[in-house]
Amino acid sequence: MSTDIYDLGFPERLSSTLKGESVRSYAKKIGVSEGTLRNWLGGFTEPPRDKLISLAQTASVSVEWLATGKGSVFQEDAQQPSLTDIDSQIVMIPRRDVLVSVGSMGDINEIDASGYRPFSTSEINRYGPAVSLHVIEIRGEGMAPTLAPGDDILINTTPLHGALPDGIYLVRMGNTLQVKRLQLLPGEMVRVISDNPAYLPFDAKLDTSEIVVIGLVVWVGRHI
To answer: CA-to-CA distance for 56 and 68, rounded, in angstroms?
Structure first.
């Protein structure tokens, strides 16, 4: 069964632009090392904005489609945007590695960005202010099958006001950050749920040493 070109993830969209050319040759053409291009093709890292533009120009595809999968695929389908237009159409959201220690406060901004993931401006506006958004890769199986290892999730760290809505959150428990489903209970208590039935739920008091909410999961991206 064929895959719609608009359903591809970034590594697959990038791979489709090589059109059989060797990775070494293509890397030389766009001015990066073979290892760098292989990392992009494998989904391990993502290109910075200037290289994203170079990739699109080399392949004669639109920057918006290559970065986000949205819009026209080929440059001839629409006028190629200027650098100013690209800045207004694409938002680069930092990717954070939550496996590192984050200290007693659990501030996600203390974790250096390991890369960036592009989103279209129209897409990101649905999820919250860009300054409060962070991309995290799921590593464990505690939230399977809802979230699988390798999935990217988008976290909105804008402070919540009022009662905490039920949902999936990035939380600090001890000195680690974890992704869990939370169900609000009376008395500022929450039920901490792992969607994987192998992990038992438990109750904890919010905003204490037991559990602190860092942000709400607002989007998930999955590699096929």
So the answer is: 12
